[in-house]
Design brief:
heterodimer, A: mainly alpha, 3 helices, B: Rna Polymerase Sigma Factor, Chain: A, 9 helices
Chain lengths: ~70, ~180
């Protein structure tokens, strides 16, 4: 039974159609090329994030502090 | 065939070198997808997607971490499991239902039926296996993959691969033997 099962499992249940390689290569030729960000672009993105993100976080912290100061003084 | 030198050309965008790889591994990939219980058209879609992904993500391939074949079958495995889950949800067929279907509708003994019937019954039995067992059995019969490769794909040890494969085969045999009763 095991030999029989091995033979069954070893034999392909589906086969590649003729011209399968050409079909794959056609799809590859028509696939959009993924755009990869350059090192410079990535660096600029980080600079922009910190340039805007840090002042924004400081602004928010100041606002919270001023609200707290006002409420605790009143 | 040593594919690693080829892969340097592929990484550089050489399509003809990639076409050689497609030709080299397509039969093994279809064999795997068939054992995953997929029909011809679904297997063709997934095989195309798997090769397309290896091409589009070729820059992410690290030959020092895994072989190309391991990477290809990892991608194909994930695509096949997603497809099987989608198809399972559509059919809403439980394991018990499938096993009962195999047992009742096809009463002939395994060695007394023709090849096509055998294949249909095998496909039904494979589909009735839990996805983890089905995947492992499908991978074990890929000649290009060693137990170490399968262990890498499945994220377990080589010993676990052997044990799980043995148990999965026993389950499959039981499903097929239900026909004999």
């Amino acid at each position: 039974m095991d030999d029989d099962l091995d033979r069954l499992l070893g034999a392909p249940l589906v086969l590649p159609p003729s011209g399968f390689t050409a079909t794959v290569m056609d799809r590859i030729a028509n696939a959009p090329t993924p755009v990869r960000a350059s090192r410079m672009t990535t660096m600029l993105q980080w600079v922009a994030l910190f340039g805007i993100g840090v002042p924004a976080a400081a602004e928010l912290a100041l606002f919270v502090l001023s609200v707290w100061t006002t409420s605790s003084a009143g | 065939m040593d594919i690693e030198p080829n892969f340097q050309r592929i990484a550089a965008g050489d399509r003809s070198a990639f076409a050689v790889l497609v030709g080299r591994y397509q039969r093994a990939l279809f064999g795997f997808l068939g054992r995953m219980g997929l029909e011809q058209s679904a297997a063709e879609d997934i095989a195309q997607d798997a090769f397309l992904r290896t091409w589009t993500h070729r820059a992410d391939f690290r030959p020092d971490r895994a072989s190309f074949v391991t990477w290809l079958f990892t991608i194909a495995r994930n695509l096949a499991l997603n497809a099987a889950a989608r198809s399972h949800r559509q059919r809403e067929t439980t394991l018990d239902d499938a096993a009962r279907e195999i047992a009742c509708d096809r009463p002939l003994a395994l060695d007394a039926i023709d090849r096509r019937q055998r294949e249909a019954r095998l496909r039904d039995a494979l589909r009735a296996l839990p996805p983890a067992d089905r995947t492992l059995l499908a991978l074990v019969y890929v000649e290009d993959l060693s137990h170490a490769d399968i262990a890498r794909i499945e994220g377990c040890s080589s010993g676990a691969v052997k044990q799980r494969a043995h148990r999965a085969k026993q389950k499959l045999r039981r499903l097929l033997e239900t026909d004999h009763g």
